[in-house]
Structures are given as C-alpha cells and as structure tokens.
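ENTRY TYPE: paired fold submission
RECORD: A
CONTENT: sequence, then structure tokens
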Amino acid sequence: MIATILIGVFFLLMALAVPIAFAMGLATVAAILAHDTLPMTLLAQRTLVGAESYALLAIPFFILAGNLMNGGGLTDQIVRLAMAFVGRFKGGLALTSVLAAMIFSGLSGSAAADASALGKVLIPTMKKQGYGGGFAAALMASACVNGPIIPPSIPLVIYGLSVGAGAPIIDLFLGGVVPGILLGVALMIAAYIISVKRNYPTSEPVPFREIPRYIKNASWGLMMPVIILSGVVGGIVTVTESATIAVLYAAFVGFFIYGELKLNQIWPILVQTAIDTALVMFIIALSAGFGWLLAVSGLPRQLGMWLSSFSTNPVVILMVINVILLIIGIFLEPLPALLIFIPVLVPVVKAVGIDLVHFGLVMVFNLCIGLITPPVGILLYICAKFAGVTLEEESRELTPFLIASIAVLVIITIFPSTVLWLPGLFR
C-alpha cells in the first residue's frame, strides 16, 4: 500500500508539472498520512539524514571547479586541441565537438554545464560551416551525455553514497573511463558516416608538428582530472578533499595560467554554484524519506520476485532493468531517478550476484541517455536554443546518436570488464 501511494501520488504530481523535489516530498507526506503507525516527524528526520553527509560536500566543490574552469578560458583551448586531432577528417568540426565534450567531461561532471560551455561555441560554428542546425544540436547534446560518465561525476557520487559498501566512489570514477571513451568513439563513427553521406566540410588540417603546442596550451586544464583521480587512488585524499583541491587548481589556472578569470567573475560564479548546489541538495534531501519508505514497503522484494520469474541470469536481469530504466529516463532526470530507484533495484542486483560498481555505471549510463530523449531531455533544450531550431527539428536528427548510445549501453551491460577492468588495476 505504501509503495502504491508513493508512486501514484508522485507521478500524479509530476503530470501536474509539480517540481520533482516537491513531488517526492508531498508523495512522502501522503504515504505517511495513509499509514497510521508512521509519525509525521519521519519526514523531517529522513530529510535531515539525507542531507547530513560529509561526503556530499564533494558536490558543490566539483560544481564550483567546473564553473571556474568554464570562466577561466579552458573551453577555447580544449576546442583547439580537439580540432588539431580530428579536424582534418570529413566532418572535422562534428568530430571535434564529440572529442571536446569527452575532454570537457573530465572537468565539470555535469552534462548541462558541458552543453552550455561547448554548445554556445561549437553549434553556431558548425552552422556557419554548413552543418544543419538540427544535426549540430543533436550531435552536441548526445556528446554531452558523457559529462556524468567520465569522472568526476556528480551522479556517480550520489550512487556511491547511496549504496555504500560495495561501490566505492573511486571505483565508480575509474569504471566510467572506458564506457565514456566507448560512447565518444561510437558517436564519432556515427557523425563521420553522416558527414561523408552529406559531404560536410573538412577543416584545415593542423600540421602534426604543431600538435604538441596545442597539447601544451590545454595541458593545465587536462591535468585536473588526473589530479583528482591520482590523489584518491593513491590514498592521499578523499573524494571530498580532491574536490576542494580541484577548486583551488581551477582558480589558479584561470587566474594565473590562462589569465581569463577576473575578480569580477567570482561572485556570479559563486552565485551560480550556490543555485546549482541548492537544486541538487534539495532533491537529495527530500528523496531520502521517499526512498526509505520504498525500501521498507517491500517493493524491492516484490520486484526481485518478478524479475526472477524471467531468469536468474545476471545479464538477462540487467537487460530487463535496462528497458525499465530507459522508459523511466524519458520522464525523469538522472538524479531523481537514481535516488528513487537505487533502494528498489540494488537489493535485486545484489541477490543475483551483479557487481555494484558495474551496475552503478550501467544505471547512470542508462539514465543519462534520458538527457537526450523528449520530452524531459534537458540537453535537447539547451542545444536547440544555441542552434536556433525547434525540438522537432533536433529530434529528427537524433536517431543515429541514440542508436550509438544504446549500443554502448548494451556492450557495457554484457561485458562487465569494460567497467571493472580499470578499477581492478588499482586494487
């Protein structure tokens, strides 16, 4: 009964366009009121527990580090570096967009931040070179799905903190590297095939002897994910401490290396970081009671019994879960979907022996595909605005990139080594 009320009220409120955090909070209140033995103080208690975690401090610091890098001139350096490598091929600017998004993903941890920083530069440039607006927007949106997959990643931090034992955040970060590279390669193959078919232009090739100069110019920014991962892997700092180091490093590079970060930019950056953090933390706090009630309602056990009726094969179970999550991702953004379904699905996958790090990457990767599926896909709206096209025009160009993304999802689902190989090297 609790699960029915929770889910029913939540989706009803979502249909009425109530913001997700309020929808979860009000659904929790409705379930408590319908159950005589549950006190209303449960909502306040679980909300505080949900937000009371030292490790959650990593979220605002990673957001701030990404915003400082955005304002510090790194975007142009990354675009130039990507162009130097792949601009010489057919559809060079399209390939550059994907490669630049892969590199930028290692700095921000946010798909929306990547789309905003890169989209406003690359999408108008693609249009000027003769690329279709819908194609440019769809490609950029699809490429920025990598933001939460390649470390650092805010959704992976949330997953690791929610699951606890069995899913160390550093293992999740390392596990995201290969899937992120696979996604970038798949999107570049799709973009290249389309570019050849439509005869999109080739950019002027950069002489190979000049490439080291481009690498040198971008190297300061490219070192940030290396610093984050090496510090945590080496046991020198925690993930939260690495996030604070990333902020100091981003400020140093922006002020003293690239020289494009100015004092008058700091206040707007701090305000934007506070807004972004508040949105994330508000959802996390109000999802705590929602997730706890789902867990105690017996829904995970019932779902496990239902899934076991299909098969006890881990791959089959993961494929069924993938279908469910792809549908959920159409309607929910990754963060609330993670917070709602982690307590439901993790007991199920543990029961059949699926590695929790592997499942974490599959779950995050799957839900991030929802960022480019209408009607909720936020990346579609961001990139359509920069391209000056309608959502319909952009969606018509989306199919090959969706197919490429789902193909990679299937690969990392069937072959756990694509996720677990790199973390295994450091154990």
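RECORD: B
CONTENT: sequence, then structure tokens
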Amino acid sequence: MADNNKKGKSKIGSIIRNLVLILAVGIFCYSGYQLITIYMEYKEGSDEYQDLEKYVDVAANSANAETEKQTPEDKKDPDVPEETEINMEETNVDEFGTVIIGDLVDSEELEDTKQEGSEAQVSLNEKETTQSAESSDATEKSKKEKEATPVIEEKEDGSVKILGKIGKVKKRVDFEELKKINPEIIGWLYVEAIDEINYPIVQTDDNVYYLSHTFKKTDNIAGSIFLDCDTKPNFTEANSVIYGHNMKNGSMFGKLNQFYDEETYEKSKYFWIYTEDLYYKYEIFSCTEVGAISESYQRQFETKWEFEDYLKRMQENSIIKTDTELTSADKIVTLSTCTASSDVRFVVQGKLVRAYQVVDPDKTKKNTEK
C-alpha cells in the first residue's frame, strides 16, 4: 500500500514538472516571438526612414562649409549655367558657418521702395520734426529694453517674409517627391551634432495618429516626427513644438538625450528645419528635463514680457549652460521626447537665428533655357 502511494505521488510530481517545463518553454517561445516582432518592427521603421534620406542632402549646409571656404576652385556648380540671375560661383560662409550663394542682402533692398514726384519728397521741416520726435522717444526707450527685430514674420496670405539679412542656399530637400509619398509633410529636421536626427516633419489634425504611424502611414511603433497639431506649419509662432519617440534603437529622437552631455552641444549648437521655400537655422539655448505637462510646451503668450520671462526661465533651467541672447522677438522651436519615466520629458529648445531663401538649380536652369 505504501509503495502504491509513493508511486502515485511520484507520478503526480512528474506530471507537475512536465507541466512547468512545458509552460516555461511556452513562455520562452512567446517572449522570443515578441522580441523578434519588436525587432522586425524597429527595423521596418528604420529602413523606411533611411530610404527617405535619398531625397535629402544636408551635409553641405555646415559640415562642408569650412572646406568650401578654403577651396574656392571647387565652388563652381557644374549643374548650374553661368547665365543665371544668381551667381552660383559666389559661395560664402556667414557668421553661423552656413554656405550661402552670393552675399547676404538686406531684405529691404529686395523690395521696390522707389517713389516718384511729390511722394518721394520729404521736406526739411518734416525731417526735423521726425528727428525731434525720435530724439524725444529715445529717452523713453532707453528706460526699456531695446525693441528686437524678428527674423521672420507671417504675411496676410499666410506666407513668410524674411526680415533683416537674407541668404540664399541651394535646394537640399526634394519636397515634390516627398509630397507624393505623404502630402502632410511640412518640413525636414536635421540636428548638426547628431547626424542620425535627420527626418521629415509631418502634421495632421491631432497629436495621436503619428505616434503610431510612420511617414508612409504604416502602423509602426516608431511613429513619426510631427509638429503639434495646433501650431502654424510655417513656424512663425513664438514656440513651435515638435514631438518624436525615444526609440531604444536610437532612431527618431532616441539620441536627442545626448544633449545631456555638454560635449554634444559644443560639437554644434545648431539644428535646421527645411521647408519648401525657406530653410530655418536654430541655435540651441536650453536642454532639460520637464514634466509631461509643463510650461515648456506653452505656445502663445499674451505680452512680450511674459514671453521674455518664459525664455529666461527656460535658459536658466537648462542642464547645459548657454550664452544665447534671447528677446521677445524670437521664434523658438521645442523638440520633445519621452524618457524612462512616464511623467518626464526631455526637451531641446532653439531660437531662430537666420532664414534662407532656397534656390533650386534645376528650376533655375529650366527657366534660363526658356
């Protein structure tokens, strides 16, 4: 009888062990399947965005600037005829290290300001009156912060006007082809210090869709780099917010947190946003961790003083110290990504320092041939 009980217990124990083993193997196989699935999804997302890079050439904007400056014999663009209205042979580098075509020109020089007859005449008395008024106002203005001039402003028709100096740069992004893939593209982002952050920017009517859909609108955990749905797509607002996932394989905004390290900032403090007609260059002034609901995401401000205080706080809270001068006239962009904590975000903020007009050599060549 005792032997039978022992055999029974041994049989039950064996069954339990087999069940546990089967369960463990099942969990292992399922986990392996999940890992393979995640890996394949990561790869599909990365492959898609790498394929899109064939429509972009950003290197010459900064990395080759010094080389082009030192080798003037290589400046000539063989694809552009000499008869173009813009001398493509004249390649310069501005104070931000950007290769430009020709010379920087004051925007006012490009506008027709000529007047004829009596409209062009201003009497001496009128000039004296104006000068007197300006002198009087100068005393009052000296007590306040000097009014700054924005780099760009929005026109009534929604287009963008460049203020101050205008530089012309060669076309780097083929928006015509990219729009065929996704008409919701509104720009292209490139971070100089982190070459891997080189992606199209999209925008739709919500901030949910592109969290799980790629540029080609494929369902994928990589999502897209996208502009806040309530922000103007021309980047003329005080603060334009751009979101991207912190992917474990380093894609999307997965390497944005390299700005925790000051060496990354010292490598280059600029990032670019390319649009179809204008290229915008931004200087980073703040990198920091913030709450998921934070004032960093505030886009509109009632007064210039409110915006000035905001900019001051953002710069003071930065993990790395910057000396960028900030004014109420600035236009900034906030790059935002998630962190290991669901309640914390990492943001990098930059101010617009210059806007450039885009020159398409192919179109210029066609127009010249006509």
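NOTES ON RECORD B: Residues 96 and 353 are 8 Å apart (CA to CA). The chain has a mean pLDDT of 80.
STATUS: closed
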